[in-house]
Write a structure and sequence with these properties.
Order of helices and strands of chain B: HEEEEHEHEEEEHEHHEHEHEHEEHHH
CATH architecture of the largest domain in chain A: 3-Layer(aba) Sandwich
Strand content of chain A: 15-25%
CATH topology of the largest domain in chain A: Vanillyl-alcohol Oxidase, Chain A, domain 3
Low-confidence stretches of chain B: none
Distance between the termini of chain A: 15 Å
Number of strands of chain A: 21
Number of domains of chain A: 4
Radius of gyration of chain A: 23 Å
Strand order of the largest sheet of chain A: 5-6-10-8-9
CATH class of the largest domain in chain A: Alpha Beta
Helix content of chain B: 25-40%
Structural class of chain A: alpha+beta
Strand content of chain B: 15-25%
CATH superfamily of the largest domain in chain A: FAD-linked oxidases, C-terminal domain
Largest sheet of chain A: 5 strands, antiparallel
CATH topology of the largest domain in chain B: Uridine Diphospho-n-acetylenolpyruvylglucosamine Reductase, domain 3
Helix content of chain A: 25-40%
Structural class of chain B: alpha+beta
Oligomer: heterodimer
């Protein structure tokens, strides 16, 4: 159904004629299938480009009045960033793309939803600061990444998940009110995420984000850390064929390979207890080999020519110390730990690749471009708990995945999971990345089978392998196992979303 | 007073209270009760003193799971036996509940271990005002606590709501928390304590901001001379000697762990000295005014207050104001407090990687209700005056709700949430905005 002329005019009156469109060639671009999100999307009836929280609030109220679904979009990297039904509009936040403040003394940046990592990261980096630039690539929205979706990142060993870096929040509620949380509530600035007393921060984001279901976030403050590693990163080449160098005596990169994930676990815990190293992670070897190569042919040559074995269980470590002496001290502990846990340094020519790509912000930019060489891909599990528990969860993958990897149902890379510790190994996140042949008509059913076996194994062993989804009938069944969380989530949605029961 | 011994008991109490319309207020620490959150004449008190079991201390995953009645005095020695330590508040009294301290977001001493304001609180079990039992984060499931094979340490969720944030600084208005998992850290095997003195708070705040940004110190606290002497002087003579310090003093500790501890302490001591030189501040490990060994003072700093009268009560009844401020506003706030109350004790504690400071102003009005009321009124007036300077009251005790619950949209939102978890309003009514 198309919007009536009258309603279209009402929307246009809010955002201005220049910032609304119902042209087919515009709408088509926002329902396109991609290798990352291969679903068919419904077409929205119009796309609006609001310029402020006040305009967003007016749009929400108008949608509510006419029972129109609205979807907030920035980069379109996730399935929830698309219209799911007719009689809907898209709010695209490309106009709300301002970095409003970078406060170096109090270490936060205030941004709008349209700010991409490629905007913010260089700005804070040149001030000697950094933030939790999650593994979404330079084009991803910082705000969506930190406030609205999940989001683990590759340097969280010495920091934490992005959820810990979300400070003050401004959001438009499903009723069209502008809600401010944390210290913003009392006009005390952006620095603190917690409301006075019980915190409204609770409903902005849990382990995962709400993807706009409890409100559209229009501004956030992001906490900043001192940048670990050298202040300047030397680069060579043009993306994706570029290299980045951390030219500093205080910075070193090492990669060790292991045979047993429990040994990796011991190494992660020992390094965390000693509070050494800036980055520690067990990376997935399939995307790694893809990133190390420039074509499918080159990939296959190297994958079958020894890379698979040499990188089967890589522990990647970045040391970023304040001084040469501290670097040497950390290296001493690192090598002790690796020796005690049975790790072996990978061949120098492979390790060198990491030295030339160790800025994770840049690595992810490369990851996005080369994943497609493998066809389709899907993360499984994607949860977090203690380091030991995550290693146990990943170890169990070996009990069922060979039925799929050995038979060609999915790519033959059974250890293709990553484990990234956070807060010096207090917790870790995990992610099993599977890839398959997109041209195989049965492939999706294999992927479905694997997902079912994975969930059944986790349930049987009572693993906390991922944070439970609580939507729909499946969510109801899951929620019962998790303190009836579906009941409480439903009541919260009902309290804030006037159309929750009607399913709009 | 009601004394539950199990979660089931708490659940029964809540269900009965719902049936009869009886308000309940939780109490988990011994006296004195500084902020009055657990005092509610209109309610029956649910005292958790019998729920005092240490449920688990795990060295590998670095956590402790404790019932609500477990005190710092009981927990700290058990943690040490396992080679662990808590990120403690500054000299909490020995009978203070470790769980209540975390729920109340008391300022911690080691900002580098704190990544978020509720830290070190990880997961918890709560009985809502509906009578339902709920567990947060990875303690939520799958299945029962016994079935769930995880360490139950992940704070976030389950799902897309951070439930545990609803129970922090909530003064028991959203649910009665029966146990909690607290993050623990490795016990250092070697350490060194630095004393940095200054005439004004500003230089020390700037130094603390720098050190925390670089993630160098373990414990770090800035005290005015009065609080410093009162906290660490065991006798009047010691207190007098400690009063010989400069008007403001920063304590900063660096630590080494199991592997090459001497080297780490040496390297990090160098960083502290370099930073002090950069800010032109003197840095000592054994200042002349110390009446005891630095090691003894360090022992006090890293434990709870086990003395017969806790440090805050040594000058009689105490009234305090607690606030948060970003680093850029902290000095002006401290100076404003000093200008208004020359006799006040003041604490400045960097929190959450040093991105904010917890500021505490302690008044000692003497005996008598009239004096106490006068002090409370003076603190409230000052609280109002400090807001334009950047003071933020995230733990609004007493009359502070009058200052912080003024914005209608957020007020409406928090009341909607309260209605979900305590539909009959039986939990600590009259507190906060409920």
């Amino acid at each position: 159904m198309s919007l009536s002329e009258e309603l279209y005019r009402e929307f246009a009156a809010i955002v201005g004629e220049k910032n609304i469109s119902r042209e087919e060639y515009i709408l088509a671009g926002n329902r396109a299938q991609t290798p990352e999100i291969p679903m068919a999307h419904k077409s929205a009836d119009a796309i609006l480009l609001p310029g402020s929280a006040e305009e967003v609030a007016q749009i929400v109220r108008l949608c509510n009045k006419h029972r129109i679904e609205y979807v907030g979009v920035v980069a379109g990297c996730i399935p929830t960033a698309y219209s799911t039904r007719e009689n809907s509009i898209i709010m695209h936040f490309k106009r709300m793309n301002r970095i409003l403040e970078i406060n170096e003394e109090d270490r936060y940046a205030v941004i709008e939803p349209g700010v991409r990592h490629i905007q913010l990261y260089p700005e804070v980096r040149k001030r000697g600061l950094s933030y939790t630039a999650a593994a979404v690539g330079p084009g991803g929205s910082v705000l969506v990444n930190i406030a609205c979706t999940g989001g683990d990142h590759h340097v969280q060993y010495g920091t934490s998940r992005p959820t810990r870096y979300l400070l003050g929040v401004e959001m438009v509620t499903p009723e069209g009110e502008i809600l401010r949380t944390g210290s913003l509530q009392t006009g005390s600035g952006w620095f603190c995420p917690e409301s006075p007393g019980p915190s409204l921060r609770s409903i902005v984001k849990g382990y995962a984000g709400n993807a706009g279901k409890l409100g559209i976030v229009t501004k956030i403050a992001v906490a900043l850390d001192r940048c670990k590693g050298p202040a300047e990163i030397r680069t060579e080449g043009i993306s994706p064929h570029h290299k980045v160098f951390m030219d500093s005596d205080c910075s070193r990169v090492y990669v060790f390979n292991y045979k047993d994930i429990q040994d990796v676990c011991r190494a992660m815990l020992a390094l965390g207890e000693a509070e050494v190293c800036a980055t520690v992670q067990k990376y997935f070897y399939l995307p790694l080999t893809l990133m190390m190569t420039d074509s499918a042919n080159e990939f296959w040559k190297k994958w079958t020519g020894g890379y698979k074995e040499a990188l089967s269980m890589p522990l990647v470590v970045h040391i970023a110390a304040h001084s040469l002496r501290e670097r040497e001290y950390e290296e001493k502990i690192l090598f002790d730990v690796v020796r005690e846990t049975g790790g072996e340094r990978i061949p120098r020519e492979l390790e060198k690749w990491w030295e030339e790509h160790m800025d994770y912000f840049m690595i992810v930019s490369r990851l996005q471009s080369v994943l497609r060489l493998g066809g389709s891909w899907l993360p499984q599990k994607a949860g977090a708990e203690s380091v030991q528990h995550m290693c146990d969860v990943c170890e169990s993958i070996g009990t069922y995945i060979h039925d799929f990897t050995d038979t060609g149902k999915i790519f033959d890379a059974p250890e293709n999971y990553q484990i990234i510790p956070m807060e010096y190994s207090h917790f870790a996140s995990n992610e099993l990345l599977i890839m398959w042949d997109r041209t195989d008509p049965k492939a999706m059913s294999y992927v479905g089978e694997l997902g079912a076996v994975s969930r059944a194994t986790d349930a049987k062993r009572h693993f906390y392998s991922s944070s439970p989804g609580v939507a729909g009938k499946a969510g109801e069944a899951t929620g019962r196992l998790y303190s009836n969380v579906h009941v409480w989530m439903g009541r919260i949605r009902e309290a804030f979303d006037p159309f929750y029961q009607s399913g709009l | 007073m009601l004394f539950p011994e199990s979660t089931r008991d708490v659940q029964d109490l809540v269900l009965e209270a719902r049936r009869t319309g009886t308000p309940l207020v939780p109490l988990s620490s011994g006296p004195p009760h500084f902020h009055g959150a657990s005092v509610n004449p209109a309610a029956e008190t649910v005292c958790f003193s019998r729920m005092d079991h240490i449920l688990q201390i795990d060295r590998k995953a670095r956590y402790a799971r404790v019932e609500a009645g477990v005190t710092f005095g009981a927990l700290i020695p058990k943690m040490r036996e396992k080679g662990l330590r808590l990120n403690l508040p500054f000299l909490p009294r020995a009978n203070k509940s470790a769980l209540a301290s975390a729920l109340e977001k008391e300022a911690v001493l080691i900002p580098k271990y704190q990544y978020d304001y509720p830290d070190p609180l990880l997961t918890l079990e709560v009985v809502f005002g509906t009578g339902d039992v709920f567990r947060t984060g990875s303690a939520s499931g799958p299945g029962t606590m016994e079935e769930n094979s995880s360490d139950k340490v992940l704070p976030w969720g389950p799902g897309s709501v951070d439930y545990y944030r609803l129970f922090t600084a909530a003064q028991g208005t959203f649910g009665l928390v029966t146990w909690a998992t607290l993050k623990a850290e490795v016990l250092p095997s070697l350490s060194r304590l630095f004393f940095v003195q200054a005439e004004e708070p500003g230089p020390l705040v700037r130094l603390a901001n720098h050190l925390c940004r670089e993630r160098i110190p373990d414990e770090l606290i800035i005290l005015d001379r009065r609080n410093f002497a009162q906290a660490f002087g065991d006798t009047p003579e010691e207190e007098k000697a400690l009063s010989g310090a400069a008007p403001w003093i920063m304590l900063c500790r660096v630590c080494g762990f199991d592997r090459y501890p001497e080297e780490r302490v040496d390297i990090y001591s160098g960083y502290v000295r370099e930073a002090c030189a950069k800010f032109d501040l003197p840095c000592e490990t054994a200042p002349a005014f110390l009446p005891c060994t630095p090691e003894k003072l360090e022992e006090t700093l890293t434990d709870c207050d086990r003395r017969e009268v806790c440090w805050k009560c040594r000058r009689g009844p105490e009234r305090e104001l607690v606030l948060l401020a970003p680093p850029s506003k902290t000095t002006a706030i401290a100076e404003a407090i000093r200008a208004r109350f020359p006799e006040a004790g003041i604490l400045l504690q960097p929190q959450v990687q040093g991105r904010a400071f917890r500021v505490e102003c302690d008044l000692f009005p003497g005996e008598g209700e009239a004096a106490a009321a006068e002090a409370e009124e003076a603190l409230f007036r000052m609280a109002r005056e400090l807001m334009p300077l950047g003071a933020y009251y995230d733990r609004p005790y007493g009359r502070l709700p009058e200052l912080v619950y003024t914005e209608p949209v957020s007020l409406d939102a928090i009341r909607r949430l309260k209605k979900i978890f305590d539909p009959d309003g039986i939990l600590n009514p009259g507190k906060l905005c409920f």
